Amino acid sequence: MRILRQTIPAGRTGRRSIAGRAPRARAVLPRSGPAACPSRARWFTLARSPANDLTMSDTPTRHILLGVTGGIAAYKAAELTRQLVRQTATVNVVMTDAATRFLTPHTMQALSGHPVYTDMWDPRVSNGMSHIELSRDADLIVVAPASADFLAKLANGHADDLLSTLCLARDCPLLVAPAMNRQMWEHPATQRNVATLRDDGVLVLGPDSGSQACGETGMGRMTEPDALCEQILGWFEPKVLRDTNVVVTAGPTFERIDAVRGLTNLSSGRMGYAIARAARDAGANVVLVSGPTMLAPPPGVRLVPVTSAQDMLEAVERALADCHIFISVAAVADYTPLHPQDQKIKKDARVLAVELAPTPDILANVASRANPPFCVGFAAESERLDEYAEAKRKRKHLPLLAANLAQKAIGAESSEIVLFDDEGRHPLPEATKTVQARRLVQHIARLYTAGR
Ligand code: C5P
Questions:
Q1: I need a surface site. Which of 12, 248, 410, 419 has the fewest CB within 10 A?
Q2: Catalytic residue numbers?
Q3: Is there an atom of ligand 1 within 6 Å of 84 CB?
Q4: Which residues, including other chains, have CB under 8 Å from residue 12's CB and lie 6 or more apart?
Q5: 387 CA from centroid of ligand 1 (Å)
Q6: Taking 70 as the threshold, does the pLDDT of residue 17 lie above it?
Q7: Which residue's alpha carbon is nearest to atom 5 within ligand 1?
């Protein structure tokens, strides 16, 4: 058994519980405050960055034990740690011997703000039971990357190093993100091991397909840290929409004037994408019908890209067949050019008049069907929010409408929303769009379940 490689004394990160953090019921920060401890002070700064402000979040801190095994993809564990910490998780890292050849414990200590463990006989663990103690307060163990060898160990219940022993002795769920060469992944032995792990209740995320470090292309790439982070944190969300089919529209539409020009608006699509994610995390099957945005497709959501209001209407109609909840977040253009030109309109000195026709109102159309899904509308107003929002809800026959002030919401990271339903108004105080999306989904789930 090798001697501990990690050389930074635990005292530098504060004398706390064995895993380097306070017991769950207490505040996450050490009693002496962030200034007393450089690494935790840094963690505090990261976690309070505007997009992830803890004070604007309802999400409790998640305690994650991150196991890193040996493979080129180990470098992605550094970014994963950074992202998890930014999203209010505490991360305690355990590395296998092979992992330390690819990534140093110092890097992981700096990013997690906690001591890193690599050895069964670590003297910092007071009763010498590191294989039990380190996972005691963890809500979840994540092994990323999980090598072929480590999956084989897990599937067969081996316990010959700290990480495999921790996984065997745990009482919390285990999630693995495999990463290996294409042939190793496809090998029947690996597939057998993965099937065994799934049968044992282990969550397997990925791998993805793509180019590999060995120069080959195929299945075996570790899921990218942002997608992994999203799925890990989403896993914790209560599954209030399990087995529900949800259709969300998002983003602007683009109405063609000629071959190169069009009418659009400033919608970024962020709110709609956040709602699609929140619904997915709540257990729903989500179809996201999106106008043109710069956003990455949310993993685990079926994205239907569209351009114009008419395209969006047609895509929504196709997706409605077995839809339970329709959330209309898109900033659909109100008008479209009556005679779009196939060729570019040439410039001259005369005034150009473009005739505009009203677009179909997708939400009103869906809500007025004989047997409509539970319909949720959005309203961005520049004044008299309550009055206009309630009038819109009544006019479109909606059980629920989310309203906000356009000047505060468009392009912003956070928003302040008021929900209107048959019971009245429900203000959602300012928070990030991710947090607002979760609150909205919980409200929808309550009304939808009550009305079923
Ligand atoms: O009437 P107004 O455009 O303000 O209504 C906003 C709500 O209606 C949003 O939920 C939006 O997605 C939806 N809408 C629509 N089709 C349109 C216009 C708006 O679905 N053509």
A1: 12
A2: 214
A3: no
A4: 37, 38, 39
A5: 16
A6: no
A7: 379
For the Cβ of 378 lying below 6 angstroms from any atom of ligand 1, the answer is yes
Q: Which atom of ligand 1 is nearest to the CA of 358?
A: 21
Domain range summary for the chain, segments of one domain joined by +: 10-235, 245-451
Ligand 1 pocket check for 330: Cβ under 6 Å: yes
pTM of the model: 0.78
> Does residue 328 line the site of ligand 1, with CB under 6 A?
yes
pLDDT tens, position by position, 75-104? 999 999 999 999 878 999 999 999 999 999
CATH class in words for 10-235 = alpha beta
Report domain 245-451's class.
alpha beta
Average pLDDT of 267-283?
Answer: 95
Strand pairing category for 374-381 and 356-358: unpaired
Ligand 1, atom nearest to 309 Cα: 21
CATH topology identical between 10-235 and 245-451:
yes
Would you say 166 and 137 are in contact if contact means Cβ atoms under 8 Å apart? no
What is the Cα–Cα distance from 293 to 269, expressed in whole angstroms? Answer: 6
Compute, in degrees rounded to 10, the torsion defined by CA atoms 250, 365, 316, 377: 30
DSSP 26-77: S-SS-TT-GGG-HHHHHHHHHHTSGGG-GGG--PPPEEEEEEE-SSTTHHHH
Q: Which two tokens stand for residue 207?
A: 């791998």
